[in-house]
Amino acid sequence: MAAVPPGIRMLVSFDRDQWYRALTFILTFLLYTSFHLSRKPISIVKSELHKNCSSVSEIATLASSSGSPQPPPQSHHTDMDCSWKPFDKKNYRQLLGAMDYSFLCAYAVGMYLSGIIGERLPIRLYLTVGMLSSGLFTCLFGLGYVYNIHSMGFYVCVQVANGLVQTTGWPSVVTCISNWFGKGRRGLVMGLWNSHTSVGNILGSLIAGYWVSSNWGMSFIVPGIIIAVMGVVCFFFLIEHPNDLKSMYAQNTSPGKRVPTKSWNGVNGHTEVYHQYKDNQTQAYCYYEDSVQNRKSYDTELLLPSDSVCVPAQTVVVVKRESEPSAISFMGALRIPGVIEFSLCLLFAKLVSYTFLFWLPLYITKTAHLDAKKAGDLSTLFDVGGIVGGILAGVISDKLGKRATTCAVMLLLAAPTLYGFSMISEFGFGPTIGMLLVCGGLVNGPYSLITTAVSADLGTHKSLKGNARALSTVTAIIDGTGSIGAALGPLLAGLLSAGGWDRVFYMLMTADFLALLCLLRLVTKELTSSKSPPISAVELKEL
C-alpha cells in the first residue's frame, strides 16, 4: 500500500472546528479587503479630476509648431480645459477635500450607530446588506463619468451615502473574528488579519490605476462590483459564532439514525426502546434492535397520564443554551477602563493614516511629476510597510504584554520619520521608496493594533463578566472616534496644501504627538505595574 502524501496527512490532522476557524479568518479577511478596495479609487482619480493643464498646453503648442496634422488627444468629456468640472477651478483642493470630508464625516457619525445596531441584528445579514449597498453607491460615483455628470452635489451625496453604509463592515468583522479566536496570541493573529486594510488599498490602487487615464469611471465601477459579489459570498458562508455550528449539528441529528452502541438484551419480549413512566418516576429500559426494518416511526407527542405507560423512545440531543446577555449601553461601554484613552489616540493616529490614504498619490504626482497611474502604483509601498508594521506591533505587544507602550513607541518614532519623508521625497525614487515603507509601518502599526487587538481586548474586558455582546459597541466607539480624525485629516490637508505641502506634514507630526499624549496615563500604568498580564495589557483596574 502506498504511503499517504504528507500534504494529505496535514489536512486530515485538523479537526472540524479548526477548519471552520480558518474559513472565518480567510472570509472576513476578504470581506474587509473589498471594503478598503472600494474606498481607494478616489485618491487615485483625484489627479485625473484635476490635471496639470500646463503640460497639456505644452503638448498642444509643440504639436502646432511642428505642423503635425494630428491634434493632441482629448477626452470627449472635456470642453475648454483638461480637468473634470467642477474640479477645474483654482479651489480644486478644497473641493476634493470636501468630497473626502463628506464620506468620512458620514462614516464617523454612522459608526457610533452601527455598533449599537449590529449587536441587535444578525451579523451576517447586516453585513450583507451593507456590502451590497456600498457596491451600489461606489458604482454610482463611476457612472458620473459615463453619464457626464458635473454636479458637485451629486458626488457629495453619493459619498455621504457610501460612508454611512460602509460603517456596517468594521464592527461586524471584528466581532466575528473575535468570537472565533481567543486572547491567546491575539496580537499576532489580529496583526496578520488586519493586513486586509493594506491589501485592499494596494488592490484598489492597482485596479483604479489601470483605468484612471482612459476611463476613470471604471476605477469605481469594478471595485463596486467586487464588494457587491463579496456581499453575496458573505450571505452564503459567514458563520458568526462557533455556537451556531453546535445548534446546526443538533438540528441535523436525525432521530432515525442509529449510533453504534453496545448490544442490550430485550425485556419482556419487546424489540424496541421504551421508557416506562410510573408514579412520576422514570425507569429506562434500553433495547437494541438488529433489524432496522422492524423499527417504527413515532411522530405523535403524548401527554403522559399518571398511570403506567410505555412510550417508544426517541434519540434526544440536548444543547445547553445560556441566557442571552443584554446589549451594553453606550455609556456603559465608555466606562470600560482604557476605552476613552485608546479612542482619542486613534482619532489622531487615523487622521495621519487617512491623510496618506486620500492624498499620497496626489502629493507624489505634484512633487515627483508622475502621471496618475505611476503615482498610484508608488503609493502602494506605504501600504506594504503598513502590513509589516501591523504584524510587528501585534507580535511585540503579545511578547511584552503592553499594548499602550507598543503604540506609544511607534508613534514617537513616526513623527520625525514623517519630517524625513517630506525632505527626502524630493531626492529621487530610491530614498522615497525607503521612506514610504518606513512611514507606512510606523503610521499604520498603532492604527492596526488599536482597531483590532486592543478593541477585542476591551470588548471582552473582565469588567463585562463575559458579556460578549459589548464587543460590537466597543469596537464602534473606538473606530467611530478614530473616524472623526479620518474625516478631519483629508479636509485639513486640502486646506493647508494650498499654502504648501510642508504645512500638511507639520499637521501630521502634531497629530502623532497628540496621539502619544493620549496614551501617557496607560503607558505609565503599564511600566509601573509590578506584574504585567500575560496576554493583554489593557485589562486595567479602575484608578
From TrEMBL:
Xref: SUPFAM superfamilies: MFS general substrate transporter
Keyword Transmembrane helix part of the UniProt annotation: yes
Topology versus the membrane: Multi-pass membrane protein
Places the protein is found: Membrane
Pfam family, one: MFS_1
Substrates-to-products reaction catalysed: D-glucose 6-phosphate(in) + phosphate(out) = D-glucose 6-phosphate(out) + phosphate(in)
GO CC field: membrane
Domain Major facilitator superfamily (MFS) profile span(s) in chain numbering: 27-527
Keyword Isomerase found: no
Transmembrane feature ranges: 19-37, 95-117, 123-146, 192-212, 218-239, 339-360, 380-397, 404-421, 433-458, 470-492, 504-523
Coiled coil: none
UniProt-listed InterPro entries: MFS (IPR011701), MFS_dom (IPR020846), MFS_trans_sf (IPR036259), SLC37A1_2 (IPR044740), Sugar_P_transporter (IPR000849)
Keywords linked to the UniProt accession: Membrane, Sugar transport, Transmembrane, Transmembrane helix, Transport
PANTHER family per the UniProt record, alphabetical: GLUCOSE-6-PHOSPHATE EXCHANGER SLC37A1, MAJOR FACILITATOR SUPERFAMILY TRANSPORTER 16, ISOFORM B
Family, per entry: Belongs to the major facilitator superfamily. Organophosphate:Pi antiporter (OPA) (TC 2.A.1.4) family.
Designated name of the protein: Major facilitator superfamily (MFS) profile domain-containing protein
